[in-house]
Amino acid sequence: MKLEKVAVLGAGAVGAYVLWGLSEKPGIRLGVVAEGERARRLQNGIGINGKVYHPEVWTPEEAHEADLLIVALKYGALPGALDSIRQVVGEHTIVMSLMNGVDSEEIIAAEVGADHLLYSLIKVVSHKEADGFRFDPDTTLGIIYGELAAPFESERVQAVAALFEGTGVHFRATEHIREEMWSKFRLNVCNNLPQAILGAGVGCYRDSVHMKAISDGLRKELMAIAAAKGIDLSIVDKNSGRGSAVPPDARYSTLQDIDAGRHTEIDMFSGALMRMGKELGIPTPYNEYTYHMIKALEEKNDGLFDYSGKDQEPTWAK
Q1: Is the peptide bond between 151 and the residue preceding it cis, with omega within 30 degrees of 0?
Q2: Domain Ketopantoate reductase N-terminal: where (predicted)?
Q3: Distance CA 209, CA 31 (A)
Q4: What's the pLDDT score for residue 126?
């Protein structure tokens, strides 16, 4: 098996890392899947680390039967992209979802079939500037992927390794992909969300016992749900290092979204944990509070609480 036609759906911070890494890989065709106005914008190029890249831009029909489809969307964009994913996927297409959270694979599998999914995640600290996306290639942990069950050294696992070999992409295969995904999910829930409410860099967890208490509360709920699902995070904790070094002023994706006035991925974080907690009978008060606070911040960005106009109907404090 050789992966020669690679399609990327989503050219944001995550997709940019893949496009950057594979742009000079010989022997492949690399394209971004897009239509309409978005396709026209992408044809002008994508700024990544100070350089403009020009991957091919394909409609879903043109990307049909790609050997590999990498889904790098924001969670809110996934429902609207399922038809495009279905059009791209052919009989032998491998699908890797590098989206945050732990349920995008299930959503995609319901559309195209579970046999196409090769479970994966990405760890990259990326942000957008005026000239495009920026990240540090050297400190980026990169893509982690693997089969849910043996054989773990499958033909497609080896094919993905061959694709990334010799590129700038950092990658590794694992026999514990489910646990790896939940480990990243834990990082997002516990480190991504509280700082978004506070509006401060990640140094707040080190410098404030109050922020650490909130992070620990979210973590306790997540760990209880993971244990109930039979997910043993100690497996990956034993093998993981210290992770990526980040400066104390780093602002993760949820806070970046709020800063930019965008809606966040809170539904795939605390929203998903609330649903799972309800199904399992596990209380999730920290996640419920966090969910509603971030939803309220989205409403604030949407202008819902702009009371500067005249003739406002009074409200009553009770």
Answers
A1: yes
A2: 6-132
A3: 47
A4: 84
Which tokens is 47 given? 């700024």
Strand, coil or helix: 286: helix
> pTM here?
0.89
Q: Summarize pLDDT for 217-257 with one digit per residue, the tens.
A: 999 999 999 999 999 999 988 765 455 667 899 888 899 99
Domains, the chain:
5-175 (3.40.50.720), 179-301 (1.10.1040.10)
Left, alpha or beta for 143 (phi > 0: left; psi -120 to 50: alpha)? Answer: beta
The encoded tokens of residue 257 equal 């979204």
**Closest residue by Cα to residue 13 from 75, 101, 72, 79:** 72
Place of tokens 């890249």: 53
* C-alpha pair distances (Å), 168 with each of 19, 49, 142, 288: 10, 13, 10, 40
From CA 60, how far away is CA 313, in angstroms rounded? 49
